[in-house]
Amino acid sequence: MIIDKKSKILIVGLGLIGGSYAMALSKKGYSITAISKEQPDIDYAIEKGIISCGFAEVNANAVSSADIIIFALYPNVFVEWMKEYGKYIKAGTLITDVTGIKGAIIEKINNLVPQGAEFIASHPMAGKEVYGVKNADDGIFRDANFIIVPTRDNTPNAIEKCKSLGELLGFRRISYLNPKQHDEMIAFLSQLTHCIAVSLMCANGDPNLVSYTGDSFRDLTRIANINENMWSELFLLNKDALLYEMDCYRNCFDKLYNAIRDGDERVIKDMMRLSTARRKMFNKDGDNI
Amino acid sequence: MIIDKKSKILIVGLGLIGGSYAMALSKKGYSITAISKEQPDIDYAIEKGIISCGFAEVNANAVSSADIIIFALYPNVFVEWMKEYGKYIKAGTLITDVTGIKGAIIEKINNLVPQGAEFIASHPMAGKEVYGVKNADDGIFRDANFIIVPTRDNTPNAIEKCKSLGELLGFRRISYLNPKQHDEMIAFLSQLTHCIAVSLMCANGDPNLVSYTGDSFRDLTRIANINENMWSELFLLNKDALLYEMDCYRNCFDKLYNAIRDGDERVIKDMMRLSTARRKMFNKDGDNI
User: Fold this and answer.
1) How many CB atoms lie under 10 A from the CB of residue A64?
2) How many angstroms separate the Cα of A279 from the Cα of each of A177, B191, B200, B222?
3) Which of B175, B198, B205 lies nearest to residue A211, judging by beta carbons?
């Protein structure tokens, strides 16, 4: 175990993800401190044994005594936090995050990390359509991917420790991508799918539809229940990659539209065959297939 | 029970849906005869007790002795079948179907139904991404909607019997729509969602994506595994309603695209708030919400 049991781990931001990290690590016997802006969240987390100690304001001592700091904040809040309080971080501290985009923040954060400390970006690809520490659930990592996003500035030791963190949290799979690859992948798999679900829900307001809805529509629109503050920020911070994926998708949608309009059965069937073949690669055990 | 236990029920087409109907009705004590083109399907269904008797060719006697005939065929095959064999149907027989579009077939079928028999359209909104009687499963109706699509030509007795059929099959909810309402609802809830899933899978062929895929993407693309023969036929038979829904959806998608491109956070957030509010109406117990 490369992360010593006596390591002081600080989590900044006790939301769903920060809270779930804290829960998983506490269960493994680590002592977790948290900084989060709402006192009731701190109280709740202590009462439930999710953290051992917490502060509703930034506590310089808690920051400077941490060996590992995990930031579970919105990207822009993370940057602002570092501008204001980054100076408290001591040399030797390992910093990581949970941010859903990487290119837009890594350099900014690196410029704010004090000499001797190190930031290694990572992204837990897990979530729920609910928020806050009261919904914390370390089970969400069990079937999920943990992505480490190193740059040439990172040391092998930091990469190795980050991997151990992913293992401790119980992720099914740990992998490595550079920031550009990460952001392109996220633009397609996550951001574009949220754009689609939101657009679909906005397209039709007939309240009678609920009565006729089957599971396919529910599955497709589950992510249309979306935190507008977090996701609008993520979209805008990854604008180029997202617009590119939206363009590619729209071209396919338009091709299908035109084929239906023109009665071009060959094109429709070709697209469906391609879609079916590709989707089979994504099947999991337990799929209804 | 309005459908007498001694009724002779004939199912034409032993696919997933025809087979699941047969399974549900046999369990309720009805004696089910089937006509389906593959002898191995007939043999399998008899062996498993799904039907009591079956024919791999159209048997005039089986058709003319049926009190109720359920057509579980592709729409165009249904029409062709009626052209060729509809004459065998006796007066007093109730005919229904499972077809996913209604406007394009009801009049055609009505013109082919012999004097004294009656066709009442219905649509079991249930399915799986697998095919054939070997995947028959009457459990798929339990949480699903059964839609009866009467026209002014239908008698109250036929509507009532069709309702009893939906009850016998175990549907959670039975409702009534006219053909136009049905086809518009299906265009949005079912056909558009399949168009979206197919387009999304066609938009990106990177095989590495599988490693990073979470449940959201899997949920959204489950229906991208699609039977191209059935669905291209359904799309083209409901072209006008489907193109209309595709247009509305694309307008929303374009609005979101433009807002992201222009950095217009207000529009993005407004759309997300609308989407979230509407999606909440679709929540079911057991949703992760």
Assistant:
1) 14
2) 23, 18, 10, 7
3) B175
pLDDT tens-digit profile of B174-205? 999 999 999 999 999 999 999 999 999 999 99
Local structure of residue B147 (DSSP, 8 states) = E
Give the CATH number of domain A182-281: 1.10.3660.10
Task: Give me the residue spans of the domains in chain A.
Answer: 9-177, 182-281
Q: Which residues share a beta bridge with B34? A: B11, B54
CATH architecture of the region A9-177? 3-Layer(aba) Sandwich (3.40)
Residues 34 through 73 of chain B touching chain A, CB cutoff 8 Å: none
| Separation CA B149–CA A258 (nearest Å) | 30
**B9 SS3 class:** strand
B182-280 CATH pick, 3.90.550.10, 1.10.3660.10, 3.40.50.620, 1.10.760.10: 1.10.3660.10
pTM value?
0.91
State how far the Cα of B22 lies from the Cα of B41, in Å rounded to an integer: 13
Distance from CA of B217 to the nearest CA of A (A): 6
- List of chain B residues whose C-beta atoms are within 8 Å of the C-beta of residue A128: 288
pLDDT digit string, tens, across residues A100-118? 999 999 999 999 999 999 9
- B residues 235-264 near A, CB within 8 Å? 235-236, 239, 242-243, 245-246, 248-257, 260-261, 263
Please enumerate in sequence order all residues whose Cβ is within 8 A of that of B130, keeping only pairs 6 or more positions apart, or say none: A288, A289, B16
Which residues in chain B are contacts of A226 at CB distance < 8 A?
Answer: 272, 275-276
Spatial distance between the Cα atoms of B22 and B28, rounded to a whole number of angstroms = 10
Return the number of other C-beta atoms located less than 10 Å from residue A82's C-beta.
24
Strand partners, B147: B123, B175
Please answer whether residues B71 and B97 qualify as being in contact, where contact means their C-beta atoms are separated by less than 8 angstroms: yes
Dist. CA B251–CA B245, nearest whole Å: 10
Could you say which DSSP state residue A169 is in? H
Find the helix or strand (DSSP H, E) in which A95 lies. Answer: strand A94-97
